[in-house]
């Protein structure tokens, strides 16, 4: 210890007093430990006995890591009830495997026979078969229920430890001591425990792993204060138990426990292989049994108390250096004193961050203040609610210290905080971090991976190339800083421009509008947008002065308001040259001829022609199309425009009346009955009637007339033969205008056949 009376001695004494106080405070919390794990105390743990696990769940006590694994258990529905049994079974009892068995509604076979006649035997047989299936289901459902209860216990423990691992712990406990001790000290608790951790994966499976190296003997919690308890006697056995590597429970560990009890306790005890039920009174004789179990309980502070005691012992040892970090909590120290203590211990002192620390993450004012304090202080306390950037600041500090060649140790009460911090550190620096968290297999693999990466980084580092790379990066950093300074200067310049007051940018328009700061001018333009959005965008090359004066702009607005089609067409007209214009005499002659033509046309024109002259071109073109269609229809109807009888035909009359809008009632009626002839012809065809050729009988009185008929027929045949046509083909040339076009003009073919027959006969006498 430092010389008495000096500052070193004062700092050591006060620091040692602080640690002893913390040790006593922790011991006080353990003075009344819970000795009966099955009591109704609010801090009573949750116990899962290995010998009480449901069927299908097996614990592997010899495994190095995984103790047991439980998957989610689903419910299975009961077997379906046959349709003809539904009215004979109490349905409410079917889905309860722990309740009474389902029964037929009738008490016995006799009652069944009385109420149900011929189907009684069949119902009974069907029920017996269904009941056998139900019993098998109920047995499996009860087994699944116990598995589900175990799963829910482990799942709850895993989730609770995820959130409160600083308050609760899960341990594998062995060596159950059952004893109704003296002074009403009832003991029903395990004496040897080893830490475990339940892990819940994405599939919902809970895996319970051991944490090797975290085994402890909780003898003080059970026997402290008893005159028959001598802890110093069994100290050697206790250390062997704590350092043993055999899994719990094992034969070796149970034998070692019995040897310790024989050394540290002056009371006789008996050993049993199985535990006694807690419902029975505790034995008067101390009873020991393996009785392994999983116990979820509040964390035991005995280890913390032991740690404080070891620290206090070291502080009281001779020539102990002053723990600067602890001493400045209880002693008012100056900067030179802290630097002196650090120098004596060979520790770094002064500004370990350097003049220009390399922070990979951005830092706000509060975070930058923490960095500045660390330049002059050996320790600071940063406190704040979640999300204020504490982990962010630590990540910057770790990165900057590693860049200076320092080694950094980060501790945390929870493993999750260390993982979050590591993820915030850039990937290039993260490989230099070694994470030691928890005691699971994944944590061991993670530790091994970190050590391998660190070793590989050290082994593969070429100092020469590393120096060149560092120089290049330093030059690039300087260039980026210069660029950043230029950009910041430009930003400042733009911000100053934003504060300038500009006069009206359109003074000829209104001196009170479009003036002030740039932001206010832009806002005025946006406010007037609904009134001026009809204006097209002004080209960027346009001059600031408008091309038209105010009077010219007013005149342009009036011209645009009076704009019509004729004026618009003038834009495309060209004034001919003098040589292209007619002479005055020619122009007068053309005007005179035009007037005479108009007068002649006016005299010859009818009312219809005058009406047509007033129609626009589109309607005249439509009438012309109707005219062409009319001529085509007239030709189909065998009317010739050159026929002198055309004017007398009904078709011509109909056309004239339609054009002149005359006799509309007459033609409307004809249109209404236009389907009547076709309907009558259809009825005649249905009755087997067709066209007939009337041939009168030839007698002596009309023989001369018959000779005339024959000569006319022969002349008609000669005509067709000279024209190259067969009279029988007459009806096949066209069927248009025939009353029976679908039948190939049979009337004409029949007439032509009759002519051939008549011409082949001799003339009548």
Task: Give the topology, please.
Elements: H1 7-29, E1 46-49, E2 66-70, H2 109-115, H3 120-164, E3 168-180, E4 186-200, E5 206-217, H4 219-223, H5 235-243, H6 251-264, E6 269-271, E7 286-289, E8 293-298, H7 302-315, H8 324-330, H9 335-344, H10 365-376, H11 390-403, H12 415-424, H13 427-430, H14 441-459, H15 463-499, H16 518-527, H17 529-532, H18 550-561, H19 565-570, H20 584-604, H21 607-613, H22 617-636, H23 650-660, H24 664-672, H25 676-686, H26 703-722, H27 730-733, H28 746-759
Parallel strand pairs: 6-7
Antiparallel strand pairs: 1-8, 2-5, 3-4, 3-7, 3-8, 4-5
Produce a short descriptive summary.
It contains 28 helices and eight strands. The chain has helices spanning 7-29, 109-115, 120-164, 219-223, 235-243, 251-264, 302-315, 324-330, 335-344, 365-376, 390-403, 415-424, 427-430, 441-459, 463-499, 518-527, 529-532, 550-561, 565-570, 584-604, 607-613, 617-636, 650-660, 664-672, 676-686, 703-722, 730-733, 746-759; strands spanning 46-49, 66-70, 168-180, 186-200, 206-217, 269-271, 286-289, 293-298.
How would you describe the overall organization of this protein?
50% of the residues lie in helices and 8% in strands. The chain has 28 helices and eight strands. The protein has helices spanning 7-29, 109-115, 120-164, 219-223, 235-243, 251-264, 302-315, 324-330, 335-344, 365-376, 390-403, 415-424, 427-430, 441-459, 463-499, 518-527, 529-532, 550-561, 565-570, 584-604, 607-613, 617-636, 650-660, 664-672, 676-686, 703-722, 730-733, 746-759; strands spanning 46-49, 66-70, 168-180, 186-200, 206-217, 269-271, 286-289, 293-298. Strands 1, 2, 3, 4, 5, 6, 7 and 8 form an eight-stranded mixed sheet that branches. β4 and β5 (206-217) form a beta hairpin. α1 packs across α8, α5 packs antiparallel against α6 and α11 crosses α12. The relative contact order is 0.05. Residues 1-5, 107-115 and 727-748 have low confidence and may be disordered. Residues 226-249, 724-744 are annotated as: Disordered. Keywords: Coiled coil.
């Amino acid at each position: 210890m430092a010389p008495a009376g000096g500052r070193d001695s004062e700092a050591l004494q006060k620091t040692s007093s602080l640690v002893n106080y913390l040790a006593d405070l922790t011991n006080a919390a353990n003075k009344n430990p819970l000795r009966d794990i099955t009591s109704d105390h609010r801090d009573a743990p949750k116990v899962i006995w290995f010998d009480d696990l449901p069927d299908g769940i097996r614990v592997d006590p010899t495994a190095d890591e995984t103790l047991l694994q439980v998957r989610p258990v689903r419910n299975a529905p009961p077997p379906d009830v046959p349709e003809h049994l539904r009215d004979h079974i109490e349905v409410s009892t079917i889905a309860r495997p722990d309740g009474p068995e389902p029964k037929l509604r009738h008490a016995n076979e006799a009652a069944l026979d009385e109420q149900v006649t011929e189907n009684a035997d069949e119902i009974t047989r069907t029920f017996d078969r269904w009941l056998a299936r139900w019993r098998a289901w109920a047995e499996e459902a009860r087994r699944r229920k116990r598995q589900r209860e175990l799963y829910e216990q482990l799942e709850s423990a895993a989730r609770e430890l995820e959130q409160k691992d600083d308050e609760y712990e899960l341990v594998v406990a062995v060596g159950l001591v059952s004893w109704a001790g003296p002074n009403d000290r009832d003991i029903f608790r395990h004496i040897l425990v080893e830490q475990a951790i339940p892990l819940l994966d994405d599939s919902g499976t809970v895996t319970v792993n051991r944490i090797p190296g975290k085994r402890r003997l909780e003898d003080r919690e059970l026997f402290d204060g008893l005159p028959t308890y001598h802890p110093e006697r069994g100290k050697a056995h206790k250390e062997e138990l704590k350092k043993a590597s055999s899994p719990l429970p094992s034969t070796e560990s149970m034998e070692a426990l019995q040897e310790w009890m024989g050394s540290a306790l002056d009371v006789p005890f008996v050993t049993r292989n199985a535990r006694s039920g807690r419902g029975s009174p505790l034995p008067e004789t101390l009873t020991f049994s393996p009785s392994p179990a999983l116990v979820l309980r509040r964390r035991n502070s005995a280890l913390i108390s032991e740690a404080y005691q070891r620290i206090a012992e070291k502080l009281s040892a001779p020539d102990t250096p002053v723990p600067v970090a602890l001493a400045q909590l209880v002693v008012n120290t100056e900067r030179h004193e802290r630097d002196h203590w650090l120098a004596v211990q060979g520790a770094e002192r002064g500004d370990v961050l350097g003049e220009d620390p390399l922070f990979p993450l951005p830092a706000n004012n509060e975070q930058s203040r923490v960095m500045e304090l660390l330049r002059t202080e050996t320790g600071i306390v940063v406190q704040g609610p979640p999300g204020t950037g504490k982990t962010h600041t630590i990540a910057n500090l770790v990165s900057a210290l590693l860049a200076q060649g320092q080694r950094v140790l980060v501790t945390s009460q929870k493993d999750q905080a260390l993982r979050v911090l590591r993820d915030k550190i850039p990937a290039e620096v993260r490989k230099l971090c070694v994470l030691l968290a928890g005691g699971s297999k994944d944590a061991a693999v993670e530790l091994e991976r970190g050590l391998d990466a660190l070793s590989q980084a050290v082994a593969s580092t070429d100092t020469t190339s590393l120096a060149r790379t560092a120089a290049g990066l330093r030059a690039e950093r300087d260039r980026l800083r210069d660029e950043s300074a230029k950009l910041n200067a430009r930003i400042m310049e733009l911000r100053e421009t934003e504060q300038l007051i500009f006069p009206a940018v359109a003074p000829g328009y209104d001196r009170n509008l479009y003036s002030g700061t740039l932001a206010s001018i832009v806002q005025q333009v946006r406010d007037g947008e609904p009134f001026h959005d009809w204006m097209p965008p002004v080209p960027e090359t346009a001059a600031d002065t408008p091309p038209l004066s105010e009077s010219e702009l007013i005149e342009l607005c009036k011209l645009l308001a009076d704009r019509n089609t004729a004026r618009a067409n003038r834009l495309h007209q060209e004034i001919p040259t003098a040589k292209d214009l007619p002479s005055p005499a020619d122009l007068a002659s053309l005007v005179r001829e035009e007037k005479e033509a108009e007068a002649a046309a006016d005299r010859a024109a009818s009312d219809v022609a005058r009406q047509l002259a007033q129609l626009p071109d589109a309607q005249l073109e439509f009438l012309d199309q109707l005219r062409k269609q009319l001529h085509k229809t007239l030709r189909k109807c065998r009317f010739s425009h050159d026929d002198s009888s055309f004017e007398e035909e009904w078709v011509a009359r109909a056309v004239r009346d339609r054009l002149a809008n005359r006799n509309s009632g007459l033609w409307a009626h004809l249109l209404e009955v236009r389907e009547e002839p076709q309907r009558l012809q259809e009825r005649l065809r249905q009755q087997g009637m067709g066209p007939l050729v009337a041939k009168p009988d030839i007698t002596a009185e009309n023989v001369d007339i018959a000779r005339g008929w024959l000569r006319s027929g022969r002349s008609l045949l000669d005509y067709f033969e000279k024209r190259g046509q067969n009279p029988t083909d007459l009806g096949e040339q066209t069927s248009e205008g025939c009353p029976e076009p679908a039948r190939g003009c049979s009337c004409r073919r029949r007439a032509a056949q009759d002519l051939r027959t008549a011409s082949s006969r001799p003339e009548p006498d």
